[in-house]
Amino acid sequence: MANTSLAFYYLARHRLSFKTFFFIPTTLALITTLFVLFYISSSTSHLLYFNHHHTHILYVSSKNPPTGSPSFPVSDPNVSKHQHPFVDLSNRSGGGGGGGRSVSQRSAIVDLGSNGNYMNNNEVFHDRDIFLEDYNWMNRSFRIYIYPHKRKDPFANVLLPVDFEPSGNYASESYFKKVLMKSHFITKDPAKADLFFLPFSIARLRHDPRIGSPGIQDFIRDYIVNISQKYPYWNRTNGADHFYVACHSIGRSAMEKAWKVKLNAIQVVCSSSYFLSGYITHKDASLPQIWPRKTDPPDLVSLKRKKLAFFAGAINSPVREKLLQLWRNDSEIYAHFGRLTTPYADELLGSKFCLHVKGFEVNTARIADSLYYGCVPVIIANHYDLPFADILNWKSFSVVVATLDIPLLKKILKGISSDKYLLLQRNVLKVRKHFQWHLSPVDYDAFYMVMYELWLRRNSIRLQLSTSIDSS
């Protein structure tokens, strides 16, 4: 009681109110928050320079550990350091290639090579010599096993390639599977396989009346259970050496009831945003969304491109809404909403820059459209892990504009000199072949480029989780 009286006497003597007791901890919390933010900021800059040396760990459940496999990280002893997909490939030649970095990391140190020197953004490849060497190696040695299914299978329409030439906005998924099935990369001997292909088609499941969008998650879950009971391959790594391909954005949510696919398997998807938790850069790969075309348009270089920039599309995102609000009535930037009165191809052929603007997702077919018609793509889609970013130097043939800089769009584009623009366009014509599909694949086309991305990811390091994680 005496102590309580003393406390009240002290408060009265110093005229302290109860607000003081709230002010002091609030101040301390604010100071602590500022300190943490400062620490994160200083640490992040360090990580951006050295993160490309890390090794991605794929988690393997302890319920079905590989036979004879240790419970600590292991790597393939037959693969030397320079072969690892996540080691900076430029170390092999001493140059500034940056081939092992993700596009997000490159954007932070875009003009610096691994040795701190200026990186030549005029070249379309991060390191052409290494790419060609590895590409030839891939063609000789890379093998994929596909889980077998027969024509009489009740879901053959989902698990087997389509029996027609793919078309439309999401054709990339069907093209890849159709070409892969007939390629020299396929092996019927699982012991020789570097990777295992999960052949279900998200697009076909979506249109199957027995499944539809609501039933895709259950189908994927049941399919994984089926192959894990029938074959030993999934259980050896819990899917770390498996991959699937999807172009429709619904593919991102399709794995919600098969979390090991999302966490462990390689996801080759068009909706490749590293802002989303379901997509893991380095482990997963970006699939280019391409509207198939059979022939090249003539005389691209000699065309008179009178318009500064062009965009046409639905207003289905705040980014597009902002673009239309600011530039809809501009005389040099043609931003259209709704149906065009002129052919889409003519607009692309008549414009210097063609805008790829984020809609529902970061991806659309507009980048491939731009490249096809020789128009320099302008990418306005934050957090987009661009296709083939492990191989191609996007700054050499495109312009990336942050969504916050949309009000500065004309200033940015008009600030590009004529010489710089001509270099960008020449490089567009160089990389165009990498964004085209063929039923009979052609060297360095979209199929081979996706195969190369998979080849980079063929070696994985596995870590056995404790049983407590599995049981939770």
UniProtKB/TrEMBL annotation:
<dbReference type="InterPro" id="IPR004263">
    <property type="entry name" value="Exostosin"/>
</dbReference>
<keyword id="KW-0333">Golgi apparatus</keyword>
<keyword id="KW-0812">Transmembrane</keyword>
<keyword id="KW-0808">Transferase</keyword>
<feature type="transmembrane region" description="Helical">
    <location>
        <begin position="21"/>
        <end position="40"/>
    </location>
</feature>
<comment type="similarity">
    <text>Belongs to the glycosyltransferase 47 family.</text>
</comment>
<dbReference type="Pfam" id="PF03016">
    <property type="entry name" value="Exostosin_GT47"/>
</dbReference>
<keyword id="KW-0735">Signal-anchor</keyword>
<keyword id="KW-1133">Transmembrane helix</keyword>
<keyword id="KW-0472">Membrane</keyword>
<protein>
    <recommendedName>
        <fullName>Exostosin GT47 domain-containing protein</fullName>
    </recommendedName>
</protein>
<dbReference type="GO" id="GO:0016757">
    <property type="term" value="F:glycosyltransferase activity"/>
</dbReference>
<dbReference type="GO" id="GO:0000139">
    <property type="term" value="C:Golgi membrane"/>
</dbReference>
<dbReference type="InterPro" id="IPR040911">
    <property type="entry name" value="Exostosin_GT47"/>
</dbReference>
<feature type="region of interest" description="Disordered">
    <location>
        <begin position="69"/>
        <end position="103"/>
    </location>
</feature>
<feature type="domain" description="Exostosin GT47">
    <location>
        <begin position="139"/>
        <end position="414"/>
    </location>
</feature>
<feature type="compositionally biased region" description="Polar residues">
    <location>
        <begin position="69"/>
        <end position="80"/>
    </location>
</feature>
<keyword id="KW-0328">Glycosyltransferase</keyword>
